[in-house]
């Protein structure tokens, strides 16, 4: 649905050039929720604004549903943008308009008649859980309600793609969860393709199917969230499962990190290891997360015994990721 190929974007000139994006490529499949994770200044906002050509790349191409956005301008670009909704961190509602009037704005631009606008607005407000707020003004709404208005407005023209620019960063944790649940439900019910950018790991954990990590304008890794979470030395995995490094092992002991997922997360792996290979197993730290509906965990353990290499080999044969710390 979205194909970003070798996109670069710089700002400034002379000695003041900032390379916001450097040869960035990623593919977002139809109907998936794809996250771009990065810290402030990584280039996330520039990337998402290149999708609908609010920022025009210096080089590379952007295709949405097969259409080359970078080849468009004028009326054709405006028409293409109607199939790309966008929501923002600070909502961007018009304070002088009611909730219903804010949602109706894109329909006014596309010349919907009054009766059709009213029917569509009512449908959208029910969809986002704001049926009783049609005549309220933005100042009368909570942050979560404002973002729901923003989502309804973004969906007014029935877009195929929804772009989310740090859409939950201004919200408290509980409201963030409710907005992410709403986005996930819209993705499921409408088949909506969602591309979101965030600096919050919790957003990726709760909602994303796949993710790319952006650092200094470059993608440093991408893949499914579950895949990256269990990959040794993955940046995402390190964020999910911070390592404790202040352990001192006794002479002859081995310090190992075991990452497991799926069915292995529910098995008595360590008990079996200790019994079958006559090992002493000391759990130093452990974390268990649910990622994409899949249980993923990581344990740091200290092992003592004569059959440690054999035992660790058996874990790898079971599909578990095993790292031995020197």
Secondary-structure blueprint of this entry?
Elements: E1 2-11, E2 18-28, E3 33-37, H1 44-51, E4 59-64, E5 67-68, H2 74-81, E6 84-88, H3 99-109, H4 114-127, H5 143-154, E7 161-165, H6 173-190, E8 193-198, H7 201-207, E9 210-215, E10 218-224, H8 225-230, H9 235-240, E11 254-261, H10 269-277, E12 280-291, E13 294-304, H11 308-317, E14 321-325
Parallel strand pairs: 3-8, 3-9, 6-7, 7-8
Antiparallel strand pairs: 1-2, 1-4, 4-5, 9-10, 11-13, 11-14, 12-13
Description:
- With 326 residues, this protein is α/β, with parallel strands linked by helices.
- It folds into 2 domains: 2-233, P-loop containing nucleotide triphosphate hydrolases (Rossmann fold); 241-325, 2-Layer Sandwich (Alpha-Beta Plaits), CATH 3.30.70.
- The protein has 11 helices and 14 strands.
- Strand 4 and strand 5 (67-68) form a beta hairpin.
- Helix 4 crosses helix 5 (143-154) and helix 10 (269-277) packs across helix 11.
- The longest helix is centred in the middle third of the chain and has 18 residues, at 173-190.
- The two termini are 45 Å apart.
């Amino acid at each position: 649905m979205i194909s970003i190929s070798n996109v670069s974007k710089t700002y400034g000139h002379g000695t003041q050039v900032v390379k916001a994006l450097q040869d960035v490529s990623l593919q977002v499949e139809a109907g998936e929720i794809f996250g771009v994770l990065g810290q402030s200044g990584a280039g996330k906002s520039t990337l998402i604004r290149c999708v609908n050509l609010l920022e025009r790349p210096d080089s590379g191409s952007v295709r949405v549903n097969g259409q080359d956005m970078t080849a468009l301008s004028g009326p054709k670009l405006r028409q293409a943008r109607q199939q790309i909704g966008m929501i923002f961190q600070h909502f961007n509602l018009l304070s002088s308009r009611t909730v219903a009037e804010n949602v109706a704005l894109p329909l006014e631009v596309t010349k919907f008649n009054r009766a059709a606008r009213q029917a569509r607005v009512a449908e959208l407000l029910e969809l986002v859980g704001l049926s009783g707020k049609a005549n309220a003004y933005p100042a009368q709404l909570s942050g979560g309600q404002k973002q729901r208005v923003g989502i309804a407005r973004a969906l007014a023209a029935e877009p195929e793609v929804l772009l989310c620019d740090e859409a939950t960063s201004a919200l408290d944790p509980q409201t963030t969860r409710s907005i992410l649940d709403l986005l996930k439900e819209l993705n499921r019910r409408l088949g909506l393709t969602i591309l979101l950018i965030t600096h919050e790991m919790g957003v990726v954990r709760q909602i994303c199917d796949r993710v790319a990590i952006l650092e200094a304008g470059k993608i440093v890794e991408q893949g499914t969230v579950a895949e990256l979470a269990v990959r040794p030395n993955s940046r995402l995995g390190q964020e999910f499962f911070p390592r404790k490094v202040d352990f001192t092992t006794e002479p002859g002991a081995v310090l190992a990190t075991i990452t497991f997922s799926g069915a292995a997360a529910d098995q008595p792996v360590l008990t079996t290891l200790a019994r079958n290979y006559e090992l002493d197993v000391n759990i130093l730290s452990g974390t268990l997360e649910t990622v994409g509906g899949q249980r993923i965990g990581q344990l740091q353990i200290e092992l003592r015994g004569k059959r440690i290499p054999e035992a660790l080999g058996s874990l790898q044969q079971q599909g578990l990721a095993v790292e031995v710390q020197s």
